[in-house]
Amino acid sequence: MAKLKSITIPVSTYEYVLRYLDKAAAKIKLDENLLRIIKDPRKITIVKLPIQMDDGSFQVFTGYRVQHSTVRGPGKGGIRYHPNVNLDEVKSLAAWMTWKCAIMGIPFGGAKGGITCDPKKMSMNELERLTRRYAADLADVLGPEKDVPAPDVNTNAQTMAWIMDTYCMHRGEYSPSVVTGKPVVLGGSRGRHDATGNGVAIAVREAAKALGMKLNECTAAVQGFGNVGSIAARSLMEKGVKVVAISDVNGGLENKKGIDVNALIKYTAGNKGSISGFSGAKEISKNRILTFKCDILIPAALENVITEKNAAKVKAKIIGEGANGPTTPDADAILRKNGVTVIPDILCNAGGVTVSYFEWVQDRLGYFWSEEDVNNRLEEHLVRAFNDVFAVSREFKCSLRLAAYILAVKRVTEVLLLRGVYA
Ligand code: NAD
Q1: Co-location of 79 and 207 in the same domain
Q2: 112 is a catalytic site residue
Q3: In terms of residue numbers, what domain contains 206?
Q4: For residue 325, which atom of ligand 1 is closest to its CA?
Q5: Are residue 160 and residue 236 in the same domain, yes or no?
Q6: pLDDT in tens, 14-50
Q7: Does 84 share its domain with 171?
């Protein structure tokens, strides 16, 4: 929250999205009519979801689905369950998906969804009813050729299975490619669960290479130990990085000799997902993580955590943005001034959507690939995208973030111009 005299005004993440977009548009002198078109989401759906709770009472939840762009293909993007989900956040996340898919060169637009709820306080039965009601209300909005959801914060393969089943029941057809991130036995892709975290580590490896840093001499701190944070930490460890600090919503851990990430993943599985109480490290305040002394920082929790208040205190040389939107534009400028290389979210965490694309392709073919095949294709896509963004940053003498936006905007507007504006 930014303070203005005594009035507190909420920060609009979408304003941040637009600021980056304006900068990229100015750099490439984008036609202002095109800019106007890509600034606004194409379609916003808001649904009210009355759900019977286990105690017999009814609660009404609010659900969102925003399709930012369907110019390059069907909408694509996760579904988030969190008490702070709101339209501004979902719009931002949807726009980032548009840029992400364009940078990766995969044939999707951008979309995102969410429900304002606290899943930690809900039973599995309540979550299933909520998910199915949301999917039923969105049955006409979603579809393999229209808009394809995936997991995000507090949703997982089971959530996707419920959405797929509800959609199929409504359509009277078997249509697994309506969602990605499903369990493998339901048409999910091997390698999807680990794809975002593995992709973060690949992007960090490429950045380290470009900076002449050796991963086996580097330390890392990771904020968030969910799907993205835990796998990114593991993958970095496998590449020789010493992971010295990790945090989640409950607290932080530090071990200067390196945290055994595999042991911590096993521990959290039996500890309701929480890192608290792990014996292989010292407990620290979770607030120390972003400014922890390390070479590589991986924010992998939520947005707007690196701000103008803490950016100058960041000690890492590389930030690999596992989360979407973890750095505010003001913080981004401070980091650039201080020589910190930020691998932007729309490149760094795009491994997930890339393997989601592979899943969609496999479902439509009805022919499934080995994990090795998936991982090799992921590696190939991410390295190519990193090199594309890196080349643009050289050409325009700008940060990787601005370069990523420039590349994405060019690719989206090229297609927009070819298709023309139907009016
Ligand atoms: P998740 O629900 O699996 O994990 C989130 C983690 O963040 C949990 O460990 C939670 O405890 C932690 N966390 C929450 N608040 C925190 C705080 N204040 N301090 C420290 N830790 C905190 O979610 P996820 O799927 O790993 O997603 C994390 C981020 O990555 C989100 O921004 C999401 O949009 C982004 N992302 C996810 C994917 C994907 O494939 N899952 C793909 C691209 C981007």
Answers
A1: no
A2: yes
A3: 195-348
A4: 32
A5: no
A6: 999 999 999 999 999 999 999 999 999 999 999 999 9
A7: yes
* DSSP H or E stretch at residue 163: helix 157-171
In a domain, 110, yes or no: yes
- Closest residue by Cα to residue 242 from 185, 199, 298, 295: 295
Please tell me whether residue 300 adopts helix, strand or coil conformation. coil
Strands 219-223 and 296-299: what pairing? Answer: parallel
Q: Does 206 lie in the same domain as 338? A: yes
What is the distance of C-alpha 279 from the center of its chain? 30
Q: Burial level of 57, CB count in 10 A (0-12/13-18/19+)?
A: exposed
Which residue from 162, 81, 90, 157 is spatially nearest to 122, judged by alpha carbons? 81
Q: Based on the domain organization, do 199 and 343 belong to the same domain?
A: yes
> What is the bridge-based pairing of β-strands 282-284 and 147-151?
unpaired
Q: How many A from CA of 226 to the centre of ligand 1?
A: 5
Q: How far apart are CA 136 and CA 149, in angstroms?
A: 14
Q: pTM for the full model?
A: 0.95
CA 322 to centroid of ligand 1, rounded, Å = 8
| 285 close to 254: Cβ distance less than 8 angstroms | no
Write out pLDDT tens, residues 294-321. Answer: 999 999 998 899 999 999 999 999 999 9
251 and 151 fall within a common domain: no
Domain C-terminal end among 176, 206, 225? 176
Q: How many domains does the chain have?
A: 2
